[in-house]
Amino acid sequence: MKSADDNRIMSGKLRIDRTQAAVILSGLYLFFSLAGNIAATKVTYFGGLVMDAGFIYSLTFTWRDLIHKQLGQKAAITTIWLSAAVNLLAALYFQLVVMLPAQTDWASAGGQIAWEFLFSLQMRIVLASILTALVAELIDTKVYQLWTRGGREKWPQWTRVFVSNSVSIPADSLMFPIIAFAGVLGMEGLQQMVWTNIIVKALVTALVFWTIYLVPEKPIYEERT
Asked: Each residue of 82-102: pLDDT tens digit?
């Protein structure tokens, strides 16, 4: 005898419940945030443009919009705060790992020195990221919420992404390099990093803005009784 789930699969109308939607959307947001903060320990460049390697973090701005659209403003704000907590706990755990005794051969190969450099810097990066993310993402949330009111809820959905990101990306791109790398990079390097972050994050937005259409206005989940 076929279950209800089997029938939905057979009919091509497979749907997920609210819990699954929340896990998928919020889980990917947390991945983009955590992976971006770890990768940001490397400073890289594109031509003459200097930036940290955590550019995957740029996806959080548009993905936050998907969470807001599908699960609501409260869920978006909760995910932002959860991301801050997860990143802080991860950074503290990495500090504990740094302090653990290093196996002699591994330490001789440079492992301990590498960990101390990367994850002492990563702690500062995480603190900078938490502060800037809370400011920038909460700004993004507010702008998105305002933009979907006053009759604009019927405007093209991509305008929500571009308008909210046009405010949050410059705020994030200015705050993060200064807090994370002041004293590590010179003034010229910091200025290049600010502008590069703005440019790269704007380009990422231009490439992925269409993902707002991955979720419909109506919930993708079913309310289970």
From this structure: 998 998 898 889 889 888 999
CB 54, CB 19: distance < 8 Å: no
Distance CA 82, CA 222 (A): 24
Determine if the pTM surpasses 0.85: no
CATH number assigned to the domain covering 16-218: 1.10.1760
Domain boundaries, the chain: 16-218
The residues near 71 (Cβ < 8 Å, ≥ 6 apart) are: 18, 21, 22, 25
The answer to whether the beta carbons of residues 26 and 67 sit under 8 Å apart is yes
Q: What tokens appear for 144 in the block?
A: 């998105």
pLDDT in tens, 168-199: 989 988 898 888 878 777 788 788 888 888 88
Residue type, 163: V
CA nearest neighbour of 172 among 214, 133, 127 = 133
Question: CA-to-CA distance for 78 and 216, rounded, in angstroms?
Answer: 21
